[in-house]
Design a protein that fits this description.
Blueprint: H1 20-42, H2 52-62, H3 65-83, H4 94-104, H5 107-120, E1 125-132, E2 135-142, E3 153-160, H6 167-170, H7 174-185, H8 188-196
Antiparallel strand pairs: 1-2, 1-3
Helix pairs in contact: 1-3, 2-3, 4-5, 5-7
Bound molecules: manganese (II) ion (MN).
């Protein structure tokens, strides 16, 4: 069963980097539609009372692409809202900083790598910072695909690369959107909690 979580910040809190208008469509329309379609697909099935992660994994295991698309998108968007923060940007501290230095060549190199992955990703998808076992990596997934179902990967933080995430604010300029995410919105506290939980 999926639910639409409230945004963890006020709709205008990310302006000017992400507008309340973008969030009203992205959270209120797109995310809501994924939640509704996923719930409709599992209604009156054994998956109806499973949690969202279990449904995403089951859809993948069963090869049920229609359910997977909506279930994964519902989960990805809930993860996305937590990946954004009005006080975001900057750099993490502690163990996550040490791991970025060790595995990704430091914060500046991480930002370069993440931007290249996000901007270079063809069409719709998601850019992720993940832990692959104990090693940090930057990866991207296509369409609804989610790092959640890739063996060994633990998602730490994500950026939505679908045009609906940025078109109202940046039109076709995905690089500007990615820059704003890295400089002003990325929620390192969320990533740090996810890393600590591995
Ligand atoms: Mn989206």
């Amino acid at each position: 069963m999926f639910t639409l979580p409230p945004l963890p910040f006020a709709p205008e809190a990310l302006e000017p980097h992400m507008s309340a208008r973008t969030l009203s469509f992205h959270h209120g329309k797109h995310h809501q539609a994924y939640v509704d379609k996923a719930n409709a697909a599992i209604k009156d099935t054994p998956l109806a009372d499973q949690d969202d992660v279990a449904v995403v994994r089951a859809a993948k295991a069963q090869g049920n692409q229609g359910l997977f698309n909506n279930a994964a998108q519902a989960w990805n968007h809930s993860f996305l809202w937590n990946s954004l923060s009005p006080g975001g940007g900057g750099a993490p501290a502690g163990a996550l900083k040490d791991a970025i230095d060790r595995d990704l060549g430091g914060m500046e190199k991480f930002a370069e790598t993440f931007k290249a992955e996000a901007v270079g990703h063809f069409a719709s998808g998601w850019a992720w910072l993940v832990a692959d076992g104990g090693t940090l990596k930057v990866v991207s997934t296509h369409d609804a695909d989610t790092a959640l179902v890739h063996d060994g990967l633990t998602p730490l933080v994500v950026l939505d690369l679908w045009e609906h995430a940025y078109y109202l604010d940046y039109q076709n300029a995905r690089p500007g959107f990615v820059d704003a995410f890295l400089a002003k919105m990325i929620n390192w506290e969320f990533a740090t909690r996810n890393f600590a939980a591995i």
